[in-house]
Amino acid sequence: MQPSILAAVPDDHASSPFDDAAIERLKLAAEEVAWLTGRGYPLEVVGELVAKHHVLSEAHRAALACGTCSEPQYRRRAARELEAEDVARRPLALDGVDVVAAVEAAIAGRAVLQTLDGTVRAFGIDRSTYAPGPPADDAIDRVLAAARELRPSLIKVYVDEGAAGAKDLEARFVARGKASKAKLEIALVPSAPKALRKERQVVTADAETLDACAGWFNLVGRVVEALSGAKIVRLQ
Fold this sequence. Notes:
Largest sheet: 4 strands, parallel
Oligomer: single chain
Structural class: alpha/beta
CATH class of the domain at 78-110 and 124-229: Alpha Beta
Order of helices and strands: HHHHHHEHEEHEHEHEHHE
CATH architecture of the domain at 78-110 and 124-229: 3-Layer(aba) Sandwich
Strand order of the largest sheet: 5-4-1-6
Radius of gyration: 17 Å
Strand content: 5-15%
Number of helices: 12
Helix content: 40-55%
């Protein structure tokens, strides 16, 4: 069920209403998917069955696909989630596209998804076509400010070099890093998620990276929660 793009909801669906009743159905559906997959049932089969049972729309199915994980996955991720004091005086590695896209969306008033593991991600963002929008500088400033509060020895940002706006995003990080005097290192790489799996402290909502990394910090969740009026679709 988990797609390769950040969240497979077309843009025209990303702004569709997630009313209280729909969110409650999604929460229940996510619990059922987690329970069944944790007992060995195939994710694709379970996802389709649960989505049909709860009569989920296309947008809600996509949210379910991107936001769920099995109970064993959740436990493993929860065990590796870092506290603020764990980050101090150590490098903190960020998934540039994933992080900025989510905070951009929240700043712009679009709905973002809080998954079962607590990470927050944007709807409708494809790494290959992503380019920074008007709120990107504000998003980067907020991300760097939140990261600096943790006092890491270095903030490392990995950007997918194949993204349409890779060079633009790199330049924006350089400019905002200088403005904030953050100790920053930026790398254009073939795949940010794969690069992050070698790091010990990461910031991402990518499911495979969260399953493989040594430790992760919910920086985006912290930034988005601090935004007044942020529209967060919570599966927790």
